[in-house]
Design brief:
117 residues, 33% helix, alpha+beta
């Protein structure tokens, strides 16, 4: 089953990263300053620059990353202001999410497999 969910239901959002903090692998970043809507998922733990919002998934990270990539461009185009996106806008981002954790895991594995190739 697929349910529309708010990003805040499936992830913790840090509007600005904490300086000096090392974020874990699987953390998703969305560029908010001088942006075209760039989205990146960390492949290893590292610090994140201040012009990104930080998305810490509560569900399968590979799955959430794929869903965000698919549905973020439309949201971004509706909310961008010049070259910037106010990080507070992310709290209004709604996504269709599979409610079954097994399906999330399987989709995440498949997407990661294709991404690695």
């Amino acid at each position: 089953m697929i349910q529309m969910m708010n990003l805040t239901q499936v992830a913790d959002i840090e509007l600005r990263p904490t300086k000096g903090k090392i974020y874990p692998k699987g953390t998703i970043t969305i560029q908010i300053s001088a942006t075209r809507g760039q989205i990146v998922m960390l492949d290893k733990p590292r610090e994140i620059e201040s012009h990104y919002a930080v998305i810490l998934p509560k569900i399968n990270a590979d799955y959430l990353y794929a869903v965000i990539q698919k549905f973020f461009p439309r949201f971004f185009n509706q909310r961008v202001q010049g070259l910037n996106l106010r990080s507070e806008e992310l709290q209004y981002f709604n996504l269709p999410i599979h409610t079954c954790k097994n399906i999330q895991k399987r989709i995440g594995e498949i997407i990661k497999l294709f991404g690695d190739e």
